[in-house]
Amino acid sequence: MKILGIGNAIVDVICKIDENFLIKNNLTKSTMKLVDEKEFTQLLANLNVEKTIAGGSVANSIVGLSQLKNEVSFIGKVNDDELGNEYEKSLTKEGVKYCYNKKVEKTPTGTCLILITPDSERTMCTFLGIAGKISPNDIYIKQTELVFLEGYLWDEGEPKAAFEKALTLSNKSAMSLSDKFCVDRHKKSFYDLVKNKIDITFANEQEIIELIDAKTFEDVIEFGRELNKLLIITRSEKGSVAIKGSEVVECQSQKKLKIVDLTGAGDLFAAGFLHGYINNMSTLENLEKGTEMASKIIQKIGARIN
């Protein structure tokens, strides 16, 4: 197996909204908020659903890697309920080996309300459900070149232990910082992970600046050089940068795109980059593949290219 992804197994519920909906419900644009089942139901009650699909950040990346003909698998916890069954079917249909044996639980399968404003930005309200209860007993790693984890996993008790177990069992590890607020909540832990435990870190500009309290992007470059491990930063229209020691490689963003939904842009960028990485392409080619995948996904609704 080339890559094993471990993350929150979440069913995405995609809805278009206006800016007033965010203001009325006290939501901060472009961030992810954890909600309980009651709040999730209340938010959804006044919305029209555009699309429902198996999601979760790392799961989106793993599907992207599968679509690029890589051998991949995924561990994420769902209930043996209707949504859980649909989730597993959605992944296996995409050629992903699903490595979790679901069972009937008291807690339902997790769901994420993805709210898309007219400027194509996405704001997420996530009810983790059983996804947030992944434990070390759920983690089984065998003959995998690389394990890819998401920062979102750090958001509840037992998943942290599962995260740490995955790191001890893996030959090589990659991690997405996931979200600026996620970084803010777990700054000390994330800093330690990036500095001492993770081999490849994916972050957007906001997330990495928050993590290291950078004043300028030059501070980020300097941090990346000193880190001497692979740090990949996406910068929206400014393109992307990969840093490892003295090597700093930049890639321009694609222009004149008809952007309709930024859901999954970072996830599919990571898929493209990791595709190049595990197939021994150059750092620039990895960035270009990531940019290509991200550019495709933001021109359609949802986080599936095919």
**In the CATH scheme, what's the topology name?**
UDP-N-acetylmuramoyl-L-alanine:D-glutamate ligase
In CATH, the homologous superfamily goes by the name Ribokinase
Major β-sheet, in short?
A: 9 strands, mixed
Question: Helical percent range?
Answer: 25-40%
Structural class by sheet pairing and helices: alpha/beta
What is the CATH architecture descriptor? Answer: 3-Layer(aba) Sandwich
Number of domains: 1
Overall outline? globular
Mean pLDDT: 92
Sheet with the most strands: spatial strand order: 6-5-1-9-10-11-12-13-14
Beta-strand content estimate:
15-25%
Identify low-pLDDT runs: none
The H/E string reads EEHEHEHEHEEEEHEHHEHHEEEHH
Briefly, what CATH class?
Alpha Beta
Count of alpha/pi helices? 11
How many whole angstroms does the radius of gyration measure?
18 Å
N/C terminus separation: 22 Å
Explain this structure to me?
By secondary structure, this protein is an alpha/beta fold. It is 38% helix and 23% strand. Helix 3 crosses helix 10 and helix 10 packs antiparallel against helix 11. It has 11 helices and 14 strands.
Supply database-style keywords.
306 residues; UDP-N-acetylmuramoyl-L-alanine:D-glutamate ligase; five-stranded mixed sheet; alpha/beta; 11 helices; 38% helix; globular; 14 strands
Short structural description:
The chain is an alpha/beta fold and 306 residues long. The protein has helices at residues 19-24, 37-45, 57-67, 82-93, 157-169, 180-185, 187-197, 205-212, 217-227, 265-278, 283-297; strands at residues 3-6, 10-16, 32-34, 49-55, 72-75, 97-98, 110-116, 122-127, 146-150, 173-176, 200-204, 230-234, 240-244, 247-251.
